[in-house]
Amino acid sequence: MIELLNVTKSFYHKPLFRDLNVQFESGNMSAMLGKNGAGKSTLLRIMAGLTAFESGSINVCGTPLKSNNPLSRKAVLYLGHAPGLYPPLSAVENLRIAAMFYGENYSDSEILETLSQVGLDRQPNDSIRIYSQGMMQRLKLALAILIPWKVLLFDEPFTGLDEEGRILTESLLKSWQTEDKTIILVVHNHEWAMKHCDHLLVLHDKGVGYDGKSSDAKSENIAAMLQGIV
Amino acid sequence: MLVNLIKKELLIELRSKQILVSMAAFGLSVVLIFAFSFSVSQSILETFAPGLFWVLILFTSVLGLHRLFDYEKEFDAFSLVIGAPVDRGTIYISKWISGWIYLVVAEIIIIPLFVLFLQLRWTQPILPGIGILFLGNSGIMAIGALISGLAMRARMSEVLLPVLLFPLVTPVLIAVTKATTAYLNAQPFILWQFWVLILASFTVIFGLLGYLLFDHVTEE
After folding, report:
1. What is the ipTM of this complex?
2. What are residue A201's phi and psi, to 5 degrees?
3. Is the pLDDT of residue A229 over 70?
4. Number of residue pairs across A and B with CB atoms under 8 Å?
5. Per-residue pLDDT averaged across B129-143, rounded?
6. Judging by beta carbons within 10 Å of its beta carbon (0-12, 13-18, 19+), is residue B93 exposed, middle or buried?
7. Rounded CA gap, A217 and A194, in Å?
8. Are B218 and B86 in contact (CB under 8 A)?
9. Which residue has the higher pLDDT, B108 or B71?
10. Which one of A2, A37, A209, B192 is CB 3.0 to 4.6 Å from A225, fit for a cystine?
11. Residues of B with Cβ-Cβ distance to A50 under 8 angstroms
């Protein structure tokens, strides 16, 4: 579970959002929606402990998120818009290093098995510099399989993926949804979010436009907010 | 975790070979420029040699320091390490130590060529010289790793790094040059221990500052 209490963030003295109070429950898959520049990715980075915020507090599984407390980040896995991995290294090396940061040690065969699970077993020892965007997304999925997270923050999980990759991502997300984990996605397709996610958060006009169950949300209202009509 | 972080740094360098190659190539070309451009007497050259050497090392270290954080931002890899449950002060220490290792490797190539091409006489016992190198490198890298981390997110980080680093590293450079001069002139240690103490103090102070402040340095 991740809880935001009165979180405020500004850029160059211009508020991005003010006094944000949101709760993302365990066992729920949440979608964060909003127009470009609404602060979705920034909010995700704030929850990952990467970006500082002016005021308020964030609790991750009951622990206050603090930059000087590494354990407060133990439960969180952030998969950003960028690959977030080391370009000179191979997929195997990147995964081994990333898992090591979370205190996990995997053998090459375990890593190769995970890579094969996400369809990346053909070039496991090549530098990831040659990877396409879709392959990078698959590599992020491999990371999410290996690291024992409780809160997954995934920024645009479907970017650059082919149909097979999209199906794979959806099936992994669904399998994690059944476990007692918190998944927060930044997505642009509100219809997909309403269909697959339990909870919707729409960032709108420097605050929350909608925060609640996706089953209770009205598609036309969400669309109006995203198009800036409301 | 510190050992693992250093291993990661060295593995990346082993794969990319960007830091060491650029540092060694730069150091070598500056040594050649020194060798062919100075037409002064040997005694004058020997007087200026410690200063020339440490300025060369400082400039060489800037190349390494810039790359030390540059690859972290290439694919936003830094978000992986600072988002992980890793003490951010330890990340600074790993950068400091790996930067120190790169500088030592570059010096192993640069020093013999510097002595050879400038026809310097080095008759002193080697151990105190290694001690001065150890402290000089540690001081430069303690300040450099902190400033490089600070400049990393800036748009013109390659310009900002030397602009911020050089004024801060000046006391270290003065102290290490004075200590090197005294050592090469075979002065008794008691006459130059003050400079060694200054060097050690700066290294410890900036090392601690880096460890404590890196939390804030890494946050966006």
Report:
1. 0.86
2. -130, 120
3. no
4. 89
5. 94
6. buried
7. 8
8. no
9. B108
10. A209
11. 79, 82-83, 219-220
pLDDT tens digit sequence for B203-218: 999 999 999 999 888 8
Question: From edge to edge, which strands make up the β-sheet containing A63-64?
Answer: A14-24, A2-11, A55-60, A63-64
Report the amino acid identity of residue A6.
Answer: N
Please give the Cα distance from A42 to A65 (Å, whole number).
16
Residue with tokens 């310097």: B120
Whole-angstrom distance, CA of residue B146 vs CA of residue B213: 9
Task: Identify the three-state secondary structure at position A230.
Answer: coil
Name the minimum distance, in Å, from the CA of B62 to any CA of chain A.
21
Tokens representing B116? 């050879």
Q: What value does the mean pLDDT take over residues A220-228? A: 77
As a whole number of angstroms, the distance between CA B165 and CA B143 comes to 7
CA distance B41 to B134: 30
pLDDT, tens digit (0-9, with 9 covering 90-100), for A138-170: 999 999 999 999 999 999 999 889 999 999 999
